[in-house]
Amino acid sequence: xxxxxxxxxxxxxxxxxxxxxxxxxxxxxxxxxxxxxxxxxxxxxxxxxxxxxxxxxxxxxxxxxxxxxxxxxxxxxxxxxxxxxxxxxxxx
Length: 92
Description:
mainly alpha
């Protein structure tokens, strides 16, 4: 496990603010985003104010305001660069 100064609540808040900022940049009301995403407007309001939402509903919102591939990329297993010449040579 890696040490992080961010908490889960910090990340939830940041994601909620990102969705809100993108929604506002698009000049969409919560109702408009609700119609486009299928997520009820009260749920969007709760998410934007508390960060609380199901993963599925978050993904439905995100795909309306940004590229879903950006979230999907979080699941990719990062490749670690070789730490020595021996590691490079042994991977042949």
